[in-house]
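Appendix B. Extra example for self-study. Work through it before the problem class; the solution is given directly after the inputs so you can check yourself.
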Amino acid sequence: MAVIEIKDLAKSFGEVQALDGINLEVQEGEVYGYIGPNGAGKTTTIRILLGILQADRGKAAVFGRDAWQDAVEIHKRIAYVPGEVNLWPNLTGGEIIDLFVQLRGNNHKSRREELIARFDLDPSKKCRSYSKGNRQKVALVAAFAAEADLYLLDEPSSGLDPLMEKVFQECITEFKEEGKTVFLSSHILSEVEKLCDKLSIIRQGKIIESGSLNELQHLTRTRMVLETKEEIPSLQDLRGIHDLKKQNNSHSFLVDTAELDKVIQHVSKFGVKKLESSPPKLEDVFMEHYRDEGGES
Amino acid sequence: MKASFFHNSGRLTRLIFRRDRLRISLWLLIITALTMITAFAYTNLFTTQQEIMIYAETMRNPAMTAMMGPGYGLDNYTYGAMMAHTMLVLTALAVAIMNIFLVARHTRRDEESGRIEMIRSLPVGRLSNLTATTLASFTVNILLALLTGIGLFLLGIESMDLQGSLLYGASLGAAGIFFAAVTALFVQLTANTRNAIGYAVIFLGISYLVRALGDVSSEALSLLSPLGLITRTQVFVNNYWWPLLLTVAAALAITALAFKLNSLRDLEAGLLPARSGRKTASSWLRNPLGLALKLQRTSLIAWAAGLFILGASYGSVFGDVDAFLESVEMYREIFIIAEDIPFVEQFIATLMSVIALIATAPALIMILKVKSEEKASRIEHLLSRAVSRKQVMGSYLLISLAASLLMLLLSAAGMWTAAAAVMADPVPLSLFLKSALVYLPAIWALIGLTVLIIGYKPGAALFSWIYLGYSFLVIYLGEMLQIPDWLSGLTPYGYVPKIPIEEINIPALIILTIISIILMAAGFRGYRQRDIQLSG
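Solution. Structure tokens for the complete assembly:
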């Protein structure tokens, strides 16, 4: 059964169409990445899943229940970390963690202490004196301390330092091993790339790419640096070659992953002296779509 | 201390005046205007020497002395003596608050927000900012002294001569300088602005209490309080300047100490160790109601204390109420509805209507917190967990309803306590309680309206306050201005029987209660169905 099921979901705020017919399905045990630039509709999607916003049309279900109608029941089994963490300035981090854990129903004291130690958080400080990163830690500890089946994380590591980001990634990996489902929104691709099994890319309220990491890599390009004995005539005319730079007999270019085989066969005729390739990066797909902004459509 | 410690202080002083030119002008304008208007109003309120002397008699009791300071020249009361007696301490409180905010804002708050760090990276001395703030606040207080002093003199009231007027202004200025100095000291102690302001305000409160205690029991005790000292100028009666010299000398000593401490500590550090808070939540902070209560605890306590004191201060004049109402034409118009009912009872009825309107404010604040929490996007912490919207709204509503009851009870109790102390033939507590509690359904109606607005159109919450303001105008001034009945019929308070002078009207109260419940239920419905606002 799909843990999250979104069908033809739409939401507008006045004139602004924040979501425009989103489709998405997250299966149990998946770590699902949801990436897109700021303002693409990531947070709106998550808030609809939380029953904080009501969709204009379409279906949003969590654990097979309606996200709007059964919000409270659903929330007993999920943990959420908002992107922008606003806390009560006169409460301490420890108090807020306890309150949040309590509001979900089951208390896991030992997990709390362990997480506070791992994230290196001082729980006795008032929230007014926490930095953005420390407020984020409070939200993360509060979310991770209690048992949950689904973790909804909205750009959860945006304020963390590299060390803490690593702790965060370890936590997600543990959840994955325990068979938990994680829905992770981000505008940082490398984060998603490391953790996620599947991902969707959203832009201007529409999903523009969706699939497993491998599937999406078909859309990516490999960077190659090539040196041949003989001059290769009209390399730029080959299909799937981009961004060609030439220096003496050395060529540097991008190849569409789909055209890789044909390109290699062609260039091998000219006596390869040196061949370097860097692995396909999702970054390139991502940049591609970002670059398109305002281009087509 | 080296001269380089003070480098560029002058520029920083100008920066303070540039940043706060509007704020400082407004404070000066308001305090000066308030002083002049009050003095002018007294000359209209009391037109004959006989009226003035009757008023003097009502001021001759310990409750008044504790509240406002000792009355000098009561035997030969004048507008000037009256002004010094009734307004000096209260205005000094306002001036002190102004100074506390001014100094804290330019020292600790700038430091906490990291702005001083930028300033200090420039060729600026390490004591320059404190120097600039001290110079600026002292200048503001001297301006205030001159403005109020000259303003009072220009009114041309006979008993307010030039020397007295300037001394009155100088008393306010001296109090201001003293509290600017005290704040400059407290900001050295704690690393956070809120605490610094808190300590300074507590110090102000203690000064007021010491003066109150001293004024009724021991002259020496009063001299320990800056507020006690400034009243010892006996302004407009004997015009002594020495208490102000003492006040300013003390202020300078405190300022010197603040400079010393400032030079000893690190930037952004406080001398007192930061108190660490609880590591775990207490058992009652474990549900939405506990959270809502914790968030509003301070405000709730402050309002409760305020209403008790308000009730008590009204109650303290009960001993002389008959004579008082006899003497002043304007008060008679406000308070007296029928000639054949004892004045005291009519007085209670009118006071309670005013108190009920004031007691509505905390109840509205408590319920409107749901909206401000939503705006600060903190409600989603609750709603994203196993908490329903009904629970969230319910928690705040419960506190709001409880606050309405608590505020009325406390103000009635306060009034009774003080009245019982000054009256020869005290009115029973039950009468005060009845007269107050009868307003509950009207307050609930306003709470209900607010719940409705939050449920459907949270942006329109200001309407609740406008409606309360309208009710205040109609109920408070209604009798005096002879406004038509239908205008008071537009507010729930217009349907509440004025006990003890009117019969209790059960059906009207039940209908008000039912309307409140309907409004609340509709508001809950709306809150369950609408989107929670996105921030930013």
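Self-check: The CA atoms of residues 376 and 535 of chain B lie 7 Å apart. If your reasoning did not lead you there, revisit section 3.
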